[in-house]
Each structure stands twice: as C-alpha cells, then as structure tokens.
Amino acid sequence: MTDANSPQSTQTKKYRRIGVGIVWDRDRQHILIDRRLPDNELGGYWEFPGGKIEPDEDAAACIKRELMEELAIEVEVGDRLITIDHEYETLRVTLVVHHCLHISGEPQAIACTEMRWVKLEDLDQYQLPAANYQIVAALQAH
Asked: Is the keyword Secreted in the record (predicted)?
C-alpha cells in the first residue's frame, strides 16, 4: 500500500535502456562528444553519443546504428566499459557503455547541435548529464 503523501514512485518514471559509445579516434587520443538539441531532455548538455536500445537488438548493434543515424560515422564496437543505472527527475536509464573505434565518415551534426573531439583530461570543461560523470570516472580509472 502506498502513502498518498509519498514522493512520486519510480514506477511512474519513463525507463530507457541506452547504448552509449565512447568513440576514440584512430590514435586513441581523443573522444567524440556531442551537444544535445535544445528542445530535447537535458537540452544543451554535452554527452557521449548513443541512443535507445530497441527490443530486438543488443547494445553493440544499437551503438553502431545510432552513431550512423545521428552522426553519419561508422564505428567498431569494442569492450563494454561500464553499465550504469541512474534516475533523473522524470526518467530512469540504464546506460550500457562500450569503447568504440572511429572507422569511417566525417562526423555530422544530424541529431545534435555540434560535436567535438576532446581529450579525456578536458572532459571536465563540458556540462554533461549526471550519469555521464560515472562514465568519465570509469574512463579515468581504466
């Protein structure tokens, strides 16, 4: 039985499983980040690219598909770095994060406002969604 005065139940929040790519350049010196569209949830924040995992796909297939659709690049999906469960005010997410190697294509801002190749040590200069800071910590520890 729930209390009528209790905070909003986590069961009423939207839930998404998201495949996230840590896209390294060929020299493994820079990581690709993109800036969310202003009218999306967490608009204007920088993030590691990826998207919603469809019911019939695994995280690696999702990452390959999303990066081609949203940035017009081909990647080789590598090892899983981390899986994160995080709750935002109106959304629960599971981020399945994989290292990726940029294979081909010049990144294009198809589903974002801009992209940048950045060094790991420079990521603290960009405003990221809260869950992404766990990714940064995992990259620094790796």
From this structure: no
Whether 66 has a binding-site annotation, put simply, is no
132 is in an annotated binding site: yes
List beta partners, residue 14: 91
- Residue 132 belongs to domain spanning: 21-141
**Mean confidence (pLDDT) of the chain:** 91
Q: Is 57 annotated as a binding residue?
A: no
Q: Is 49 annotated to bind ligand?
A: yes
Produce one character per residue of 28-60: b if its CB has 16 or more CB atoms within 10 Å, e if not: eebbbbbbbeeeeebeebbbbbbbebeeeeebb
The residue type at 140:
Q
Does 132 map to a domain?
yes
CATH number at residue 61: 3.90.79.10
- Is 135 domain-assigned? yes
The CA dihedral of 69, 71, 73, 75, to the nearest 10 degrees, is -80
Global pTM reads: 0.88
According to the annotation, is 48 in a ligand binding site?
Answer: yes
- For the chain, list residues with pLDDT below 70: 1-11
Task: Find out whether 87 is annotated in a ligand binding site.
Answer: no
